[in-house]
Fold each of these.
Amino acid sequence: MLDTPTAPATAQVPALSLNDQSADPVAFAAALGGSFERFGFAVVADHGVPADLIARAWAMTEAFFALPEDMKRAYFVAGGGGARGYTPFKTEIAKGASHVDLKEFWHIGRELANGHRFEAQMSPNIWPDQPEGFRETFIELFAAFDTAGDRLLSAIARHLGLAPDWFDPAVKDGNSVLRLLHYPPVAADAPEVRAGAHEDINLITLLLGAEEAGLELLDKNGEWLAIRPPEGAMVVNVGDMLQRLTNHVLPSTTHRVVNPAPERRGHSRYSMPFFLHPAPDFLIETLPSTISAENPNRYPTPITAHDYLHERLVEIGLVKA
Ligand SMILES: O=C(O)CCC(=O)C(=O)O
Ligand SMILES: [Fe+2]
């Protein structure tokens, strides 16, 4: 008989509405900050990314991953660390994990003007010939994620006692990455996870697609809890850069994507995380307001976002030291 894993408990992450921000920015900031302090995660509905744009993006994502393997591999950039274009199935491995992840993905970065001062650190995008409209769709989606991200960061700034526009210069022309993820159907005896336990590297992650079961967070007591957002809501989580900046006041919570219940194993899972990064030259330096006698500065030496990202990509096997 096959083992039927018992379903994990669901994380009681409150569903917030970004619509509430304009009426009462202080209350929204408190709710978002409270959810982050408790779980490292928040669930945000009414995030402002248009539903028809998201629907187009899902259609493009499915159409791209349905292309023959050799066509997709033509967009794999050898030695590129997966920064742009296609990364094949079973390439990425979570830090310290024993199995490679059961996923393939596509990365889109920011479009920079020719001669931009970040050109050396932020690779140009590559675009597939098909499906048609891919480039336009994802440039538009990237911009919509930027806007949602700015609104969330202003709430985070408020929560931290900073000016609401504190993050604006930090993230202007930032090195954010939009990841299109495909987890193909899994065999009954596949190793246990689609994506191994990990923390995100960036400031915050804005994730669409977590309605399809599998995403779990590791709670403070060591229990894995399922994340079950309402249809269309975004799952937002704190990454290591924000954890470091805030001296762990906002925790970057470990998460993973487990294989689904047997009846869903024949289905693909698609998701779209937007990894919101600061500009490469942003200095991650512990915020003084987060340092106290009980919480002494854990990071006396500041590091640029670019150097920090490089260190972390080496650890996950995407870049050579
Ligand atoms: O697919 C998901 O739901 C989460 C993906 C994720 O955690 C990641 O790519 O960092
Ligand atoms: Fe993640």
Amino acid sequence: MAQLIDGKAVAARVRAEVQADVERFKAARGGVPGLAVVRVGEDPASKIYVTGKKKAAEEVGFRSWEHHLREDISQEALLVRVRQLNEDASVHGILVQLPLPKHIDAERVISAVSPAKDVDGFHPVNAGLLSLGQPGMRPCTPLGAMRLLEEAGCAPAGKRAVVVGRSNIVGKPMALMLLQADATVTVCHRKSDLPREVAQADILVVAVGVPELIQGEWLKPGAVVIDVGMNRKPDGKLVGDVAFQAASQRASAITPVPGGVGPMTIAMLMRNTLLAASGGV
Ligand SMILES: Nc1nc(=O)c2c([nH]1)NC[C@@H]1CN(c3ccc(C(=O)N[C@@H](CCC(=O)O)C(=O)O)cc3)C=[N+]21
């Protein structure tokens, strides 16, 4: 049986580290780090996630604000709000919750956030810095996944890493972080021969949003599996992108869903906000 990588426990540790650093920050600087979360419309999942982020922010000792805007807000009015937050010295981190309504151009909104306050690491400047291997704000989910590999005692250097999914928010930055850590990286997508690629993976990271897409039998015995997927089944149960039962028979370590990568995303958002408040990277 595989070792279970307890993201919930690691995330609690990361948040405790941030909380201790906030105390030092207060002593040295007077104020506290501030995180502004912008939520547009009534997406029920977004509402739950934003509540979780605000709660975590308050627990570690940040100030936090939720800017809840109407579903029918214009693109221009949303951009104005983002620019106001850029100018606000008490706000160190800005997160615009995705997805945005269809009439909004998400890329333009992300690009409007000051790169120094872009605690999601989604701004083109930060994406560029990551691809160049230079310091910058890094996306929270891949950052959390890297930390979980470390916690599992898995050093990427020299290993074959396979990333399934090529999104700008998880797959691509994940592949770049693994590459920077000296893994040999393959990125898979819908045209890939998945069973064949997955069989090569010492490290497998899956972020596609298809319930139990990856069959346990495909895995290389001893692989370390990071499952970023979060899929709600009709019965309300959450499942990942990896068929967990069969996978845990072959893997040496695996993240559960829930309780794996999800809590790490929020913990790393706290770390990024502290970093932004401390003057960045
Ligand atoms: N600008 C932006 N930044 C984001 O980081 C962002 C976003 N938009 N839009 C939505 C996704 C999703 N996301 C999650 C964070 C934590 C959990 C999490 O903590 N999940 C728990 C509980 C899940 C449950 O029980 O519902 C778990 O996996 O154990 C999940 C999902 C951040 N996102």
